[in-house]
Structure of TPR_REGION domain-containing protein:
Amino acid sequence: MASGGDGEFVNLARLNIDKYAADPQVNRQLFEYVFYYVNDIRIAHQIAGVATKSAGYEDHFWKNQLAKCYLRLGMLQDATKQLISSLQQKQLIETFAFLAKAYNRVDQPMAALKTYSQGLEVFPEDVTMLTGMARVQEALGEYELSVDLYKKVLDAQSNNIEAIACVATTYYYGGKPEIALRYYRRILQMGVSSAELFMNIGLCCLAAQQFDFALSSIM
């Protein structure tokens, strides 16, 4: 499926989708090539549909792939149905995450939180579930709950940059710039270098009355 000197190896316009999508030896590789590399969601959806039918509607993998296509196409209710059906067959972190994402897309944050909670019951302390819950709580304005969840993320994965940054931001706006500065410096020690990070460090130094460090960070 790799590109050669004469162009692409797979010509989707001339490919017999029904034949190859029904073949379990090649259909997964073909789907991933079309979905991720070619980015042709229509053909990818066709492949996933034929493969699901060929598997007797009993393969959770193809239900997840169909749901991904539906999410990209904006067919959120169809995506939700496929993901719920997939969870009834096999519970995976990816499935819980995509189902919660679908609920967030249709503005149902409480359903998304419930999905993340169900995922944590099966996969305790999973970083994906905890991060998703923290984002939803933050969007709902529940900042204390969000920070508590981000701290749980750091307990499970101490180098999670998103969690470190969110906790640092909370401490800064909570009137504790010295503590926020420690978190931002931790991100800097991890090799991250950006204008936003240096500006945040400078603002923390300024709020903590460390004017010399503030100027050197910003300039």
